[in-house]
Amino acid sequence: MIDNLALFFLVSLVATATPGPSIVYVTTQGVAHGLRPAAAAGSGVLAADALYILLSITGLTAILVASHEVFTLIKWAGVAYLVYLGLRLLAAGFSAQPGPAAAPQAGSSPRRSFLGGFALRAANPKALLYFGSLVPQFIDPSRPIAAQLVLLAAIHLATAGCVLGAYGVFAGRLHGSSINARVRRAFHIATGGFFIGAGISLSLMRR
């Protein structure tokens, strides 16, 4: 059991620390709007993970993964949201004017950042596959399954929380710093391109 938990921790650490849409979103919120929106965005991601874990405990994730229609719906919702985020960032980058860093834009409230992080993660079918297919591999059928799922959930959420928190703090410290306006503009354009590329990649995903 201990070996399984240690291996699951390593898998969670690699999965959450590898830069992907969630980390890029948290970082973008931190650089553009500050620490609070970054923390809220990370909390939204964790809330979506907690939802998938709850579904996993009840056995619903296996049903969702098996349903072609539901999987396709989640996938295309994720594609649409990733492209939407990318276009917004590209627009912000190309419309940015040279000069001092601008004040936080409208729509950068922690509530919106939380909802954005939640939607981004919840609409990612890779998260559905992760919790519906990978997590059960670490379950020992000879032991109480619900208790094991709760323990694995705690390990994943704690690991992901630390990783997202580290990215958020780092990005939040860059907000309001003397970063050249040209660098900020390039950052928005690069992250916008990343989200659009991630959306295209997701559209090609097959189970």
UniProtKB/TrEMBL annotation:
Membrane-topology annotation of the record: Multi-pass membrane protein
InterPro entries in the record: LeuE-type
Compartment(s) where it occurs, according to its Swiss-Prot or TrEMBL record: Cell membrane
Residue ranges crossing the lipid bilayer per the database entry: 41-66, 145-167, 187-205
Taxonomic placement: Bacteria, Pseudomonadati, Pseudomonadota, Betaproteobacteria, Rhodocyclales
Primary localization: membrane
Keywords: Cell membrane, Membrane, Transmembrane, Transmembrane helix
Organism: Thauera sinica
Superkingdom assignment: Bacteria
Coiled coil: none
Pfam family, one: LysE
Name of the protein this chain belongs to: LysE family translocator
